[in-house]
Amino acid sequence: MSRTASCLCGGVKVEMRGDPIMKNLCHCTSCQKSFGAAFGSLAAYTVEQVTFTESEPSVLKTYTDRSPESGDVLNRSFCGKCGSPVRVQTGKRPDVLVVPVGIIDGDKADFKPELEFYCRGRVDWVDPIENTKAFETMPPTYPATD
Ligand SMILES: [Zn+2]
Ligand SMILES: [Zn+2]
């Protein structure tokens, strides 16, 4: 099934084809800062599944995040006009694109997380999501499937 996503101003549009290869929350400090939220809610796809389109002139900007607790470098892309985070790509797995669930258009019921990363950073008023597999830091393999 094909789904779409867009930033707050609509300058960046995304089409995702097929199911995500991974759905997770991330409680790391870097995601908290970047998403301006208590945690990141994320859907990962292969590069082939996702198409980004942007208005002219180009509004898509990328911040190279060298702070992640995983030691990886993350390319965090956002809309330069409205500031919405629209994509995360890890240095170690450039073949995987991560879309923040909050920018997905319409119903988000299909994007319930299966995994939670960096639970050591979970804020104490956020309970574990039912039926998720929780990791103190990262799972041993990325992307993890269960
Ligand atoms: Zn925008
Ligand atoms: Zn994170």
UniProtKB/TrEMBL annotation:
Organism the protein comes from = Xylaria flabelliformis
Q: Which InterPro entries match?
A: CENP-V/GFA, Mss4-like_sf
Cite a single GO MF annotation.
metal ion binding
Q: Which family does it belong to?
A: Belongs to the Gfa family.
Q: Which UniProt keywords apply?
A: Lyase, Metal-binding, Zinc
This protein's name = CENP-V/GFA domain-containing protein
Q: Indicate whether Zinc appears among the record's keywords.
A: yes
Q: Where is the CENP-V/GFA domain?
A: 3-126
